[in-house]
Amino acid sequence: MGRSVLITGGNRGIGLAIARRLADGGDSVTVTSRSGEPVKGLSVAQCDVRDTASVEAAFKAVESEQGPVEVLVANAGITSDQLIALLKEEAFTDVVDTNLTGAYRVAKRAVRGMMKLRRGKIIFISSIVGLYGWAGQANYAASKAGLVGLARSLARELGPMGITSNVVAPGLVDTDMAAGLSEERKAAILGAVPLGRIADADEVAGVVAFLAGPDAAYVTGAVVPIDGGLGMGH
Questions:
Q1: What are the Ketoreductase domain coordinates in residue numbering (predicted)?
Q2: Domain extent at residue 141
Q3: Per the domain annotation, does 189 fall within a domain?
């Protein structure tokens, strides 16, 4: 039987690619979105990761349908780009609350069942921006960098219970978020990428599937860049 999997923000882009990859592998997968609109072939739970009650309701729905969450992929994220001199405080806190505190909320809820099972996989979707930095994205970079500290702390805390905690850090990926960038911005990024191309969401999904699978049983606290060489170890 497949495992119970929950992917936040899994209704499109990278999250959807991960969901389809794990579902194709036989797992029971539920994705969350703020709207709760249907996604073909997948179970959907309405959830706003900024709200603890909403997170609790989503987990209860998943647990009733497919059992305790064994694999959590914390993928939900937003951007609100602006130069620091013009960046409003609410734009900073909104991004951090969704991308970082939201990941904390779902991880905290997920480990409740994982500790009872004495196993589990937690995977945080960060970004190369969180490691590399990028002008105009101080809020986004801070939130994504914070996921590394969160994941590594959980790796130490939960490892004795058979629970792993890892991070993937994609670079520029062919998603709606990337589509919102100007051609000049894309060209500037790709000019620094040794492979010279944008990534496909399925390439990120493949790495997540590895970290969620048995071959990564001895991998925890890792940060895996999927950036075409842009960060070069950062």
A1: 3-192
A2: 4-171+200-220
A3: no
